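Appendix B. Raw example, untouched.
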Amino acid sequence: MSLAQDGRTRPRVRVRHGLLRTGRWSLRYDTRALLVCGALALLTAGTAVLALGTGSYALSPAEVVRTLTGEGPPGAGFVVLGLRLPRALVAALTGFAMGTAGAVFQSLTRNPLGSPDVIGFGNGASAGALVAIIVLDTGAAQTAAGAVCGGLATAAAVYLLAWRRGVHGYRLVLVGIGASAVLGAATSFLYVRADIGKAAQAASWMIGSLNARDWTDVRVAALGLPALLPVVLLYARRLTMLEMGDDTAAALGVPPERSRLVLLAAGTGLTAMAVAAAGPIPFVAMAAPQLARRLTRAAGPNVLPAGWTGALLVTAADLVTQRLTGSALLPVGVLTGVAGGAYLAWLLRGERRAARL
C-alpha cells in the first residue's frame, strides 16, 4: 500500500508492461518476458561455455573465456575456436530458429501439437535435403537450398489441402500429419534406392546431429535469422490477434489469410534453415513455446522467449550428450527424441484432463 497526498491509502499497482518511444515509433514490451529472455540468454551462454570445455582436451570455464578473448592456454585456440565453437553456435542458432518457428505454428494452429516437426514442414525440409544429398550429390549450400525448397513446397501443399473457406488450426494439423506420413515413406524410399555410402551419410544427418559441424554450417544456420526473424517480430501482434479468431482479427483491421501466409512462409523458412544446418532435431519446436509460456506467464505467441528457450534446450542437450558418452559421437537428436517423447506423453495427459473438465 502507498500513502496518497490526501492521507488515504491506495493500492500499489504492479506494472508488467513498458513502452519505449523513439520519434514516430513505439515499442511495447512485457517486463517479465524481457527478464526471462535475458536469463535464458545468459543460461545459453553459460551452457555453451561448459560445452566448449568438454572433451578429451578439457578446459575450465575460465580457460574457455580466456581462449575466446585470445588469451587461452597453448593449443586451446585451435580446439575451441576451430573445432568446438562452430558446433556450439550451430546448436544455439538452430535451437533459436526451431523455438521461434514452433511458437509461430502453435499460435497459427492454436494447438500445442502444431509444431513443424509434427505437421510435416520439418519432414518436407528433410526430404528436400535428402534429395540434394542422395540424388543430386551436392554440397552444403545446395543441401540448404534443397531443405528450403522442400519445406516451402510442403507448406504450400499442406496449406492448399487444408483450405476450405480459409485455413483452420485442426484441419492444418490433420493434413500436416498426413503429409508427414507421406514424406516419411518418400524418405524411406530414398534410403532404399541410395548406395551404401550416401545412405550412411544421410542417416547420420537425418537423426539430428551436431557432430563435425564447421563454419559453413554456422553460416547456413544463421542465414535465415536476419531475414526472417524481423518478419516474425513485425507480425507478432497480428499473430496474437489471429489467436482470437479470423473474424475478430478482421474486425481489428488484420487481414487473416495474408498474415497467415506471411507467417507460414517465415516459420517454414526458419525450420528449413535449421534442418539444413543440423538435421531434424525432434521435439524442440514443440516443447520450447510451451516452456516459454510457462516462464513468462504471458498470453500470446511469446516468440522471443520461445526462441531463447529452444536455444537453451539444444545447447543443453548437446552438453549432456557429450558428458554422457565422453565424446561427441551421440547425436543430439537421440536425447531430444527421448525427452520429447516423455514431454509429449505429459502434454497429451494434460489435454485429456482438460477435456474431462
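End of appendix B.
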